[in-house]
Specification:
Blueprint lengths: L8 E15 L4 E15 L14 H42 L3 H6 L16 H15 L24 H5 L6
């Protein structure tokens, strides 16, 4: 009786085995060969549909769409970080070289993209031009040197003490 649901088919092969016995006293060798039946199941070559599901085109496309969205999110995050780093570098240049506050510079309508060169690096000449334009447009004039307000207008000028006045406080200069 054969099972119709079983996909493995048994095969019967006859393998010869050799039995060798040696008699030490007679020094004769007797060879006996017998055949043994071995039944080994062979795997079925057909795949049943219940074991291997066929790929669904929509599910595969959805998987790729999710990967695409994740890659786009990573790319956007990296671009935002690069823009923030560029802006920090420009802020540092403005404060060190042009002596104005970055808030005033950006209030003039400058953008990071306008200050980049063709290779994507910060163009120092463009930053200098934009800083000068902001200084003139907003009326910003950084001090040229050390500025002390009301210097020279103090009416109470005191004379430095001499050694004689320190030693003898009652003497007059």
């Amino acid at each position: 009786m054969t099972d119709t649901k079983n996909t493995e088919t048994p095969t019967t092969t006859k393998e010869p085995t050799m039995n060798t016995t040696t008699d030490a006293a007679d020094s004769t060798t007797v060879d006996t060969t017998t055949e043994q039946d071995s039944t080994t199941p062979e795997p079925a070559t057909e795949h049943t549909p219940e074991h291997t599901p066929e790929p669904n085109g929509n599910a595969e496309a959805a998987k790729y769409r999710k990967q695409l969205r994740a890659a786009e999110k990573d790319r956007d995050t990296a671009l935002e970080q690069v823009d923030a780093l560029r802006r920090d570098i420009i802020d540092d240049l403005i404060e060190r070289e042009h002596k104005i506050k970055p808030a005033a510079f950006w209030a003039n309508g400058n953008t990071v993209d306008a200050l980049l060169g063709d290779d994507g690096r910060i163009d120092r000449a463009a930053v200098a031009t934009a800083a000068d334009a902001a200084i003139h447009a907003l009326g910003l004039h950084p001090p040229l040197g050390v500025f002390v307000p009301n210097e020279g207008s103090n009416p109470n000028v005191t004379v430095n003490p001499t050694w004689a006045s320190v030693i003898n406080p009652h003497s007059k200069p």
